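Most newcomers find our protein records easier to grasp once they have seen one. Sequence and backbone structure share a record, each on its own labelled line. Nothing more is needed to start thinking about how sequence determines fold. As an example, a complete record with its sequence and its structure tokens follows.
=====
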Amino acid sequence: MCGRFTSITSPAEVASFFSAEEPNPNLFGNFAPNYNVAPTTRIMAIANDQLGTRRVGLFQWGLIPSWAKVLPTSQPLINARSETAHEKPSFRESLPHRRCLIAVDGFFEWRTVGLAETKPPVTKQPVYVTRRDGHLLALAGLWATWRDTSDPSPSPWLHSCCILTTSANATMSPIHDRMPVILESRDWSAWLNTGSTSQPATSMAEIVKLMKPADASILSATPIGTAVNSIRNNSADLLLPVI
């Protein structure tokens, strides 16, 4: 799974990297680097609009299905298993119609270690995973919109998203048995194409082929300190490697 990540790159740089339209300053005027992004945070994701134009938006991390009667109070849907998303009620509408790319600088995972392996001794070693080339990671995601229909006054739409996961590759398997679906730039257009006035949607057969473990050689996994365990800690120091 993927339960924590970093969002350091500015919205303008994210838009440039993903060849998206310039981001709306009203959405991102208060942007600050986040070194410890936790569930329910509003995060940057890239999706196509109805005309097929690629845009950067803000989405709450933890997908809320459009049919939900109330906002969930616990266990947000931050991940969806790629193998079963097509059959799960919470995700099966988003998979063909609402796909996105979640832009992260890196993500955290925790590896179980023996007490003798680390000093001071711990049982869970945080690991920071990034691309070896230093570029942003494009995580495959799903998104949805929700509004409180019980509110007599029109309430605003809430946009939310989740990260798709797959089986771990050779870099990740010593750390965890799952990992995010990571897409290369050659696959972004196909993934984001859910159909527009000028282009038919990418077939689900092709989408299924994209939801596979990334090449292990593109990733670097660096052990870091346990300060990242607490979401109250949020600074660049969290990313310092431990010996």
Summary: The chain has five helices and twelve strands. The helical segments are 11-17, 25-28, 94-97, 188-192, 204-210. Residues 33 and 240 are 16 Å apart (CA to CA).
